[in-house]
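Narrative progress, year one. The postdoctoral researcher (J.K.) led the effort to move from monomer predictions toward full complexes, under supervision of the PI. The following entry was the first complex the group processed end to end, covering 268 residues in total.
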Amino acid sequence: MVVLRDCFLGVRRFDDFEKRLGITRHVLADRLKKLVEHGVLYKTPYQQKPVRQEYRLTEKGLELHPVVLALVHWGDKHMADERGAPIVHVHKQCGKIMQPLTTCSCCGEPVTARDIRVEPGAQWQDRSAELLPR
Amino acid sequence: MVVLRDCFLGVRRFDDFEKRLGITRHVLADRLKKLVEHGVLYKTPYQQKPVRQEYRLTEKGLELHPVVLALVHWGDKHMADERGAPIVHVHKQCGKIMQPLTTCSCCGEPVTARDIRVEPGAQWQDRSAELLPR
DNA sequence: GCTCCTAAGTTCTTTTGTGGAACTCGCTAA
DNA sequence: TTAGCGAGTTCCACAAAAGAACTTAGGAGC
């Protein structure tokens, strides 16, 4: 998650990740490799002689933005000190500082945990006991 | 994250978490303790003689719902097999199967990674070099 | 020609975390 | 009297992470 957070801030290079994250080079190399293997990041050279790679979000990776945004927002609300949120998100279209709001894709209304009921997926009915409690 | 996911499905008891998650009792006890310490879950007895506890989401924990919902939705889209999503979310108010949509709190428009610009928070200007790359 | 520097790793050793199984404790039911 | 349940705790062997040094392929300064 912290690697992804920094990707969304525009960090692309191995040493930049290492300086920003409190993580060893070994673990960073491992995580980057796994993210590439799963198609969340891709590796592309930004210079030859010597070859230097950078890591960028794929389309699949970009679609994790709602997850990271929601988690950052939660952290800003519940973990921040008196200085408040260390960074803010500006919505380019409307120009204002925004908070992410989760809404229903059908009716557009805001959605909280209490507004949702969970049901087994269409192809999974026979296995709902394993999927849902009680 | 998997403990939280199951909390939002209504799982509350130690042994139920253990059966559903591929995680040892030791690690589960540790994670539940940490989540309680951080105020995401709270422990409450559901019977006396002998005392049995259950774990429930606090208000702070419930506010992680957008994070879990967004991550589940991403997984359904990118990791599901031909059977599709194992569970679906029904919006109680409109009665339809919904996908979470992240929108701008100011203008209400849907937001993607490309619509956002990041800036340092008001009280943090002097430290923006550490917070933002380049 | 020598030394230092950079980026992107890899290798090494020590410490910490995890998996798996068994054990505990307070109680209930057969 | 024995068995079972829920919610852990303890023990050991193995896996992963921290921290530091080393590697490789070049470039800059002297």
